Amino acid sequence: MQKFKVSGMSCGHCVRAVTQAIQALDQAASVEVDLAAGLVRVQGNLDAAQIQAAIREEGYEVAPA
């Protein structure tokens, strides 16, 4: 499981946007978003760079956690 610190997420829409962006690249990916902690956990076939790029495309700042 890969973990990322994501800043700028504040609501359910943010959770859906991040989840959908990652699952658009890997439909089978498991995405868990902890809104309060600003943490995103991803289990799937994508590498860290692909996940971070997908999150950045949605307008959030992201770094490995």
Describe this entry's structure for a reader.
Strands 2-3-1-4 form a four-stranded antiparallel β-sheet, covered by helices on one side. The model has no long low-confidence stretch (mean pLDDT 97). Helix 1 packs across helix 2. The chain has one domain: Alpha-Beta Plaits, CATH 3.30.70. The chain has 65 residues and is α+β, with helices and mostly antiparallel strands. The protein contains two helices and four strands. A hairpin with a 4-residue loop joins strand 2 and strand 3 (39-43). The chain is globular, with a radius of gyration of 10 Å.
Stretches where pLDDT is under 50 for at least 5 consecutive residues are none
Report on the biggest sheet: 4 strands, antiparallel
Strand order of the largest sheet: 2-3-1-4
Tell me, what's the shape?
globular
Class from secondary-structure proportions: alpha+beta
Helix and strand topology:
Elements: E1 2-7, H1 12-25, E2 30-34, E3 39-43, H2 48-57, E4 61-64
Antiparallel strand pairs: 1-3, 1-4, 2-3
Helix pairs in contact: 1-2
Domain HMA: 1-63
Protein name: Heavy-metal-associated domain-containing protein
Organism: Pseudomonas sediminis
Question: Could you write a compact summary of the structure shown?
Answer:
This protein has 65 residues and is an alpha+beta fold. 37% of the residues lie in helices and 31% in strands.
List keywords for this structure.
65 residues; 31% strand; Alpha-Beta Plaits; globular; alpha+beta
